[in-house]
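Follow-up to my earlier ticket, as requested here are the two runs.
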Amino acid sequence: MTLTTEPGPDGRPRCRWCLGTPAYLRYHDEEWGRPVADDRRLFEKLSLEGFQSGLSWRTILDKRENFRAAFANFEIDRVAAFGEADVARLLQDAGIVRHRGKIEAVIHNARCAQALVAEAGSLAAYVWRHEDPAAAGDGTQAVATSAASIAMSRDLKKRGWKFVGPTTVYAFMQAMGLVNDHAAGCIGRAEAARARQAFRPPVR
């Protein structure tokens, strides 16, 4: 699929996909593609990408605040402590996607994240080991996976994580700044590149 831009409300070019709603536009302008080193935000995004499977990101973004309230703001240790009563509570929460498998996967993945943090020092240190600067293209063609997302997906699955296929992981990498997939000519492409230049990936 060819990546294209259109003028936003201020007349400046942006990725076409973000112009559907004001929430999409804010997400594009303020978040998407900017590098993130905060474990809570990284875990949140991996969790929400899992919930998105089979749905649109717009659906998940519109419910993001509800998800945060339901899942203890995606604090890893708090979610890891959820039990059956929490699963039952979440299945009754109309503000989120009520899918038992995905709900249980977030809780399970929080426990996997605890083990990963103990090993790598932080979720961020682990995630940024998988950055592939060569993965992003020139902003003209959209892709769904990369060698880096395939490798990270495979490793997470070996560690027991669920709902972390290569496409899900690539969408996570795009959003968290591990690749810059803003369309050529989009104002966000240069802004994301500058943010990445100033960013220092965490290490243990």
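Run two:
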Amino acid sequence: MKKKYNWSVLIGAAFLMASSAIGPGFLTQTAVFTEQLGASFAFVILLSIILDAVAQLNIWRIIAVADKPAQDIANKVFPGMGYFLSFLVFLGGLAFNIGNIAGAGLGLNVLFGISVGQGAVISAVLAIGIFIYKEAGKAMDAFAKTMGLLKIMLALFIAYISNPPLAEAAIRSVNPTHFSFTAVLTIVGGTVGGYITFSGAHRLLDARQTGIENLPAVNRGALSAIGLASLMRLLLFIAALGVVSTGARLDPANPAASVFQLASGQFGYKVFGLVIWAAGISSVVGSAYTSISFIKSFHPLILKFNRAIIIVFILVSCFIFVIIGKPIKILLAVGAINGLILPIALGVMLIAAYRTKIISSYKQPLWLTLAGAGVVAIMIWMGYGTILQMLHS
């Protein structure tokens, strides 16, 4: 029975990470870049899947072997680095959570006609309910799985009816005619950047699924998470490609909604409402859980009042959104910012893999270290290219 429960936790961690990735920003980014790059966005997705998998495998394995949260590992690598990393992840998580709350509110607005602000408040209350529940860990796993499957099934439906040019997408996945540094940085950042890659790894820590003996299962969990997020990205891309290849223009105010509406009329628009609500609320749960997991080891009081602090984090995110609103530009920007955080986080983890005081007798496979170092270099290069593009635009 224990083995079965372990697998359940691993799948829950995979879905938590994937659901954290597949938020409103994920939907918006995919629609925007499909319209900009067309079928060539397939190449960006393929490249990002490889970068995502390498980054996630390294980070999950090192956290599992060290049996410590990322911030404690970072502090052992360079004194104070854990606090700096936590600050970056916490701020990135808060910014993302504002967008997540907004997305959930927008979903209820589409479904029931209530205001986006009212929808945001209702969604925040539902997310808080998951953390108030005594069996919060199990509830979070079950919720992440349910919402993850729901999003994938609905995206599959829209991808099917949009009649996309699949042959062209397959060719452009290896022979692109357009490329964008910003797209790669934003997509990788939106999938494994900032807090996202740590959401599943920290869930495994809480569930005590750690140690060298659990590495094969940790590998499966990490790759399953990337597989789920990548499947959703591909389905959304195919759906958006089917729409834009007809010459239709997406509404810049809500590009992701346009994909669903143009593919399937008012019914598609309602489906979008359900998808973005599921994306928003599951990402609220993942973002809040992981952002607070980055500070809870710093003081006993934070650990003692962990649940209450998570609830305050959600309430603050909701309050900021209700005051500010207009999240579309924020959702695109935060993906890129999280992409800039990734090389710092991954770089620190790669150094930790060679500190015996952190990982004891564990030997990190050389190919995984070299691949991880390659991802760090590529993300720094992409970040530099993106900054140059922004300065010249």
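The only thing I checked on run two: The CA atoms of residues 343 and 380 lie 7 Å apart. Let me know what else you need.
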